Amino acid sequence: MPKFTIDGKTLEVAPGTRVLEAALKHGIHIPHFCFHPALSAPANCRMCLVDVGLPKMKPDRTPELDAAGKPVIAMLPKLQTSCSTVVSEGMVVDTQGPRVKQGQHSVLEFILINHPLDCPICDKAGECMLQDNYFGWSREDSRIEPPDKIRKHKIVDLGPKIVLDTERCILCTRCIRFYDEVTKAPSLGIVNRGTFSELQVMPGRELNGTYDYNIVDICPVGALTSRDFRFRKRVWFLKKTAAICTHCATGCNMTVEEDEGRLWRQTPRLNPAVNGFWMCDAGRSAYHHTLDARRLTQPMRRGAGGTLEPASWNEALAFAAQKLRESGAGVAGFVSNRSTNEELFAFERLFAQALRGAPVASLETEVGILPLPPADGLLIRPDHNPNSRGVREIAASAGAWTGAEDLLSACAEKRIRTLLVMDPDLVGRSPNPAAAEHALASVENLIVIASHPSAATALAHVVLPGAAAQEKDGTYTRFDGRVQRSRAAIPPPGHARTELEILLGLAKMLGADFGWTSPRAAFTSLAQASKFFAGLTYDLIGPLGAVPAAAVAEQPASLV
Amino acid sequence: MEDFLRQNIVLVSTLAKAIVVPIAIMNVVPFMVLLERRGSAFIQDRRGPERASIFGIRMFGLWHTIADAMKFITKEKVVPAGAHPVFFYMAPALLLIPAIGAFAGVPFAADVTIAGETIPLQVARLDAGILYAFGVASLGVLGIALAGWASNNKFSLLGSLRSASQMLSYEVSMGLTIMGVLLIYQSLRPEVIVQAQAGPIWKWGIFVQPVGAVLFLVVGFAEANRLPFDLPEGDSELVAGYHTEYSGMKFAIFFMSEYMSMVTISAMVTTLFLGGWQIPFVTTERLHGWFGTDVAGQALTALCQVTSFAAKVGSLLWLFVWVRWTQARFRFDQLMKLGWRTMLPLALLNLIVTAAVMLVIWKDDPRFGLGFTG
Amino acid sequence: MGLSEDLYLPETAKALGITLRHLVTNLTHQSEMPTINYPDVKRPLNAPERYRGRHRLLKREDGTPRCVACMLCATACPAVCIHIEAEESPTKTIEKRPMKFDIDMLRCVFCGLCVEACPCDAIRMDTGKYELADTSRKSMIFDIDTLLNH
């Protein structure tokens, strides 16, 4: 383990660690652009220059000692890029000296020579590394007047998702390395020389892959902008919430960004054990599904004329509870692998405590609610639902649940009078949609909890509008058993409520008391009831999730 | 019909007085509001509200009061949650009734004799008219206390508690001050007191009882909750005091009551200290000598005397307004100190000195009917 | 305090004298009162070089708004009264332009920070207009056309 000294602090790091990595890890900030923890370091931006000294060696390869018995340090004549310098035994690094400052200052001036002054209309402004480094290390006027700057191409289409501004590009090659090293599908390159160097997509290609938006995130400046977010919102207006992507079993950690109660974008959130720095484009764009104008926002009841009519929550819940109570043995429920652990647990409790242990089933399907690219071994998994593992574990702790096929055929044979469905699209996600539709149509009272309209809500006698993933608190169990927490960024639209509130409302009408009302308390109760979740709490789950004792063996290696 | 009137002249005249006088007092209110608004404006180098016009006639701003009245009447009736459902409505009436009722004993002209019947120009001729007036006037505090309590509001309650303690404190001094006057005039009947102040101006109470007059005037300000004694409202610290939660016509009644109690107190000051309806140096007999004693002569006499009474009351009302826009509000401890440690000893001293003077100097004077001989 | 101040009443009398003097002076010299009869008589807006009146949006020479929808005014606004929605400009050299630019004059506090913040000198408060009353909330939300054609 080599020991080295940086700004007077002696650190011991793993062999092969680069100076910049070691410094960042220990809270010493060295400005940089091209360095990215997940990518190789070409050292082409030259921003991370530091002064490096090595112990002077005698001919016998032992350090020369001074009068006080300390090794004599010989400073290297030129500044070194800390992102590409590997730490060696006895190395001395200075990140603050006047030589370093002068070097960083000059590099920044060089980078800014032809950089346009369009921060006011640049989407990156506010989260731009160039802005941050300028304010931290330069704050000087340019010696080049704006009219003398080299003009390059602006608004270059790199495909349907990405817009390139070559004037803003500082040629750090992060995006090039992303395709080379992460997706292993080289797509970009730099053409021309010197001042006229430009980023270009390889001839005859366009960027239309699965992970393209990630290059917008890693671009240190505003050269690459996303069509989806371009000009929509200034980033400093956005309020950020730590959430989980619910569109495949990977459960990528993400930041949901919201302003004035509306979602504006979703960005990946670093979790080395789950998704690293990345996220797929489909998951990132999935917030449009939450913004869908056709969302259900009003409880509805089938009126005398046979059409769904708006009702108050009290009416709708009271009607649903009455039918559930009246139907005796003819009650059943459908949960889904898209619900949170807490909702599944509340559903299970509702049926066990208030409905005499009536049968509960779940579609064991891999079909989600949005079209997703096929599994690629990188982030996207074949199962497009966030909580299939949670359904299995909770069903196991509650005693086996009924099979979905059996329950649907029971419905078709009219043995089920009242069916409570908490699935976003029971018909569409079912392996046999026609049979499922027939089964639901045969039920006397169909109660559906859903956030979006579907074939099931069209057949329902009572529709209880629920929340989308970004609108509720809860935990999801990843395919490998890791339990991750997602937080509500915005309230549900209109009169819609979270599923947990709806289930608790039904329980109250049916005279059942679970002893908890919040997702946090629900999870604590779940951890007591289930062997799998035993010992976990919201505090233990934290921002990066937690692995239950039962699933430790299944964990994959870290991605970063 | 004429016979009926002739035969029941007392009944008819009493009814007429009972209707005309309260209406007259109520109609003083808009003019007082106008006086207050424009008066304060000119004192503060402003013009005041004067822009409301009907067909281009502005009437110096009088229409604003009418607009106010219309607004009050048509405003939404707001009752705060938790307010007492009955007392909240009762409180304004409990303040308004004493404010008008106290006026009943005040004479506003000499008696007239029509068809052999003596008709007093006074709504109610009572044996203890002075006691009645002050007794009724001091009931007003009930309305304020009830308003504050029934509003279910801390500020209202504080305002009404302030009002209750203020009224009680100052009524003690008020009673003692009146006793000096009563000692001199030897009667509880206001008409007798006014009659005793006939003729030369130095017979007026203000000259016989100068300290009493000043004390009574100050106490009158306190009883009417007027600045510098408007602590029950105390806008700067209590929002609006006891009527914080009142709006619309209910608030308007509080607002009117304040002005009516000013009228009543001015009338009492006039009766006790400013010779009531007496015109200085011009007695009723002299007026009768000028105008004759037939119906027309008596009417003219009464008219002169009512005018005199109204002029005195009007001047006092202006004094109320004038002081309001001159003086700042007392702090509550200052108010209490003034009431108990200045007003009360002064009133007591005044009473003792008056009694001593009555006993020693004027003991043989038959005018006062003491009949002492030794 | 002297005796007369202790007695309070002489001082009250003095104070009444002062207010009476004002009253009489004002009653007898009504034309000299400092009050301006506002809607009938208007104070001339002289020397208000930096007077902040109603906002206006400036135009380029070709008549399009100078605003590039950078939202720095909305960022600086302490009253949160500026609402901007941006769109792609058909002119490639301009890139971004406002699709919506609403100022809620009911919320505006006329602080002028939007003018200070603007990098394009696209918004100014130099119209000198200060009479901004209307009968509906909606009409007090000025849209881009109102602001451009002041």
Explain the overall architecture:
The complex is a heterotrimer of chains A (560), B (374) and C (150). By secondary structure, chain A is α+β, with helices and mostly antiparallel strands. Chain A has three domains: 3-106, Ubiquitin-like (UB roll) (Roll); 119-125 and 146-290, Alpha-Beta Plaits; 300-554, Rossmann fold. Chain A contains 17 helices and 23 strands. Chain A has helices at residues 19-25, 98-112, 129-137, 174-182, 214-218, 281-285, 287-291, 313-326, 341-354, 388-397, 404-412, 426-429, 433-442, 455-459, 499-509, 519-529, 538-541, and strands at residues 3-6, 9-12, 49-55, 73-75, 80-81, 92-94, 156-157, 162-164, 188-191, 198-201, 224-226, 239-244, 253-259, 262-268, 300-302, 308-310, 331-335, 360-362, 418-421, 445-450, 462-465, 474-477, 483-486. In chain A, strands 16-15-21-20-19-17-18 form a seven-stranded mixed sheet, with helices on both faces. Chain A is elongated, with a radius of gyration of 29 Å. Chain A starts with a strand and ends in a 19-residue tail after the last helix. Chain B is mainly alpha-helical and 374 residues long. Helix content of chain B is 65%, strand content 3%. In chain B, strands 1-2 form a two-stranded antiparallel sheet. In chain B, helix 4 (87-101) packs parallel to helix 12, helix 6 (140-150) packs antiparallel against helix 7 and helix 10 (210-223) runs antiparallel to helix 12 (248-273). The model of chain B is unreliable at 370-374 (pLDDT under 50). Chain C is α+β, with helices and mostly antiparallel strands and 150 residues long. In chain C, 27% of the residues lie in helices and 15% in strands. Chain C is built from five helices and five strands, in the order ααβαββαββα. A three-stranded antiparallel sheet of chain C has the order 2-3-5. Chain B binds chain C through residues 39, 42-47, 214, 322-323, 325-327, and chain C through 9, 12, 15-16, 18-20, 22-23, 26-27, 33-35, 37.
